[in-house]
Amino acid sequence: MTNGTTDNFIGGEWRGGQARVENVNPSDVSDVIGHYAQGDTGDVEDAIAAARAAQPAWWASGIQKRHDALMSIGTELMERAGEIGALLAREEGKPLAEGKGEVYRAGQFFTYFAAEALRQIGDFAQSVRPGIDIDVRREPVGVVTIVSPWNFPIATPAWKIAPALAFGNAVVWKPANLTPASAVALTEIIARQDLSAGVFNLVMGPGRDVGSALVAHGGLDAISFTGSVEVGRGIAAAAVPNMTKLQMEMGSKNPMLIMDDADLDLAAAHAAGAAFGGTGQKCTAASRLIVHGAVHDAFVEKLSAAAQALTVGHALEEGTQIGPVVSAGQLAQNLAYIDKGRAEGAELICGGARLERAHEGHYMSPAVFAGTRNDMVINREEMFAPITCVIRAGSYGEALAIANDSAFGLTAGIMTRSLSRANHFRANMRAGTLMVNLPTAGTDYHVPFGGRGASSYGPREQGQYAAEFYTTVKTAYVAQGEPE
């Protein structure tokens, strides 16, 4: 179990705050998980100073030490996936199986990047000038601030923290205020490793105070952020005057094309899983289902049946497939989108209602809209809700055009038996991650992840591509000289 701390971790020490925030279980609002410290601008200053002082020694400690620390973190996360996954499910609301799976996946990120710490292979080149050798190597960017969201409170920070540490950087992490228990659990594991004080720091607190102070600080070398487009733009505006390196994963409005030759049972199952898994609170959720007119009505019927068959309940109860929405504010926003869709003329086929359960919580039935147009608000804005919208298309070409008509470009999928359509889609869909006969949600940790347009800014995350953000390239020219 965790040691019971609810404090920040700065410069190698657990530190309380002037204020604390109540952490409430969205499955049962009478269940208070704890009261967690809120940092302030002084904590931000101390954390960045500690990170800057510690980073050179961490880089100099060598690849074996970094490998061993990350391997230990990853192994413990995987071994404790059941325990920590239950804590995650309790505070964030995703079903227990998903919570356990997320923690295990977080462990895999650390073990993967433990191996990457050893795979420090540079490049050698001959100069165009005789008698000169060229050496190209990667070095850490320096001090990295990580700002992570609540929907994957351990996996998302893991895929940022692990490469940051593997490549010799120091970290200041600001997690989402809705999920502090998961942040503390991960920090406890990291804090037990053989890391110098200040290499890793946790500063919890509200974005308007702690987050704003962090991203505008001149002592940072890089910022990795996952969250909304609005917040991302604010971070960019604050970081650019300091020339701080940026990596941002932001909004999405992911399409899934259902073609007239698709296996409709498989298509409905994949669409329902992608749209409603994690209560729709995924950046990879399928929120626009663009369906060929020849199979539109049959698909809508199957999708509606699949949505209504899902069991909505307490995240820790056996049999729950869809947990609660993360907060009362999020639930109110979701229901407001239901009203917007109806006002725009969309037909609510099923769901979209607040649900009562044995425990008071933020429950909502998965919703399917049909008769929607791509210019409707519900098809333009990321709702982050268990709501999906069906758009009718007369052909593959029309469906592709609709799919590409978006400010976003994170993930996209197609359900088809046609190899030529699948290949055309892969070549012409403007998104960072494409799925063929698969849900739009669900990615691997050893390959790059990211999007286009308003979905992403800066280098890709995950896999070997992570080195582009967490390192800087140094090119050295060396005169060979004459032997004595």
Describe the structure.
Strands 14-17-18-13-12-20-21 form a 7-stranded mixed beta sheet, sandwiched between helices. The longest helix has 23 residues. The protein has 2 domains: 265 residues, Aldehyde Dehydrogenase, Chain A, domain 1 (3-Layer(aba) Sandwich), CATH 3.40.605.10; 183 residues, Aldehyde Dehydrogenase, Chain A, domain 2 (3-Layer(aba) Sandwich), CATH 3.40.309. The protein has 484 residues and is of the alpha/beta class. This is Aldehyde dehydrogenase family protein. Belongs to the aldehyde dehydrogenase family.
Structural descriptors:
single chain, 484 residues, alpha/beta, Aldehyde Dehydrogenase, Chain A, domain 1, Aldehyde Dehydrogenase, Chain A, domain 2, seven-stranded mixed β-sheet, six-stranded mixed β-sheet, 15 helices, 24 strands, 38% helix, globular, oxidoreductase activity, acting on the aldehyde or oxo group of donors, NAD or NADP as acceptor, Ald_DH_C, Aldehyde_DH_dom
Give a concise summary.
The protein is of the alpha/beta class and 484 residues long.
Total tally of structural domains: 2
CATH first level of the largest domain: which class?
Alpha Beta
Largest sheet: 7 strands, mixed
Helical/strand content category: alpha/beta
Q: Quickly give the CATH architecture of the largest domain.
A: 3-Layer(aba) Sandwich
Number of helices: 15
According to CATH, the fold-level topology of the largest domain is Aldehyde Dehydrogenase, Chain A, domain 1
User: Strand fraction band?
Assistant: 15-25%
The average pLDDT score comes to 96
Gap from first CA to last CA: 65 Å
Helix content: 25-40%
- Overall 3D shape: globular
Strand order of the largest sheet: 14-17-18-13-12-20-21
CATH superfamily of the largest domain: Aldehyde Dehydrogenase, Chain A, domain 1
Low-confidence stretches: none
Gyration radius, in Å: 23 Å
- Per DSSP E runs of 2 or more residues, the count of β-strands stands at 24
